[in-house]
Give the backbone structure.
Amino acid sequence: MAVKNKLKETFRWLWITFAYGLIFLMFFGKRIHDHYWPPHRTTIADFVHLSMRASAFGSDSGVLQIQNESEYQITGTLAVVNHDNQQEKTFDVNLDPKQLWEIGWTYGWDFKPHEEIYLQSNVNSVGPASWITTRMDNGGVGIQPKP
C-alpha cells in the first residue's frame, strides 16, 4: 500500500512539473526564440551586405566583401558559379557579428563579371539570397542583387 501511494505521489508531481513547463513555454517560448533569431527577417540578405572592391592583381577582377551587419553569428555556404567557364566553387561561411570577410584570389577565386553568387544560411527559417557580378563603367567588377 505504501508503494502504491508513493507511485501516485510521484506521478502527481510529474504532472504538476509538466503543466508548469507547458505554461512556461506558452508564455516565454516565443520570446526565447526571438532572442536567438528574429523571425521578421526572411532572407540572409537582411543580415549581410555584399560588395566588390578592385583586386590588387588586376582591374578586370574583383574581391568579394561580405559584411555581417547583424548582432548574430552567421554560418552557411557561399557558392560562386561562372557559367562562361563552367566553373563553380563553394565556401563555408562563419561570420561573427559585424565581421567583414573578403574572398578573392587568395581563396582560389578571381571574380569576373556575369558570375552568380548564392548565399545560404544554416538556419532553416532564413532563406537564401543571390547576386550577380557586373562590369562597371570604370572596367572594374561590381555586384547587384539577382532579380
Q: What stands out?
A: The helical segments are 2-36. The first strand starts at residue 48 and ends at 55. The radius of gyration is 24 Å.
